[in-house]
Design a protein that fits this description.
Helix content: 55-70%
Distance between the termini: 83 Å
Strand content: 5-15%
Low-confidence stretches: none
Number of helices: 5
Radius of gyration: 26 Å
Mean pLDDT: 85
Largest sheet: 3 strands, antiparallel
Shape: globular
Number of strands: 3
Oligomer: single chain
Amino acid sequence: MRHNKKFNHLGRTNTHREAMLSNMASSLIKHKRIFTTTAKAKALRKFVEPLITKCKEDTTHSRRIVFSTLQDKNAVTELFKEVAQKIGDRPGGYTRIIKTGNRLGDNAAMCFIELVDYNENMLKETTAAKTTKTRRSRKKSTAAETAPVAEAPAAETTEEKVAE
């Protein structure tokens, strides 16, 4: 029975799973986005988010704890220097999973997992959407006054064409 066994074993032994997640976390930190299966991405999110939280406090102790998990000096350096600067005020939710469909060979569910603050396209779209919503609400009041005047002659011309 599987009582109280809540995390996904991913079909691997404990040491293999830990090594795989450590390598995936290092790749995610270095490249800011990786392409993997949905199950691995969900397991990676639980693995990497506590590490990113730990990097908010730049002490020797926290660096050693993160290094003991990642085993990659370059990833630890980048995590504490660049990533910690961008996510300093964010209270959590440092990663985003975007599903992309199924893999052709075995029909496995695939996705991107990325660091939230590093996707420039998503950041631009959210700010642009907010500004257009406020502008539209202002234009509706002025456009509503001028719209019936513009529509009335257009309706008459189409009625005259139908009558002829």
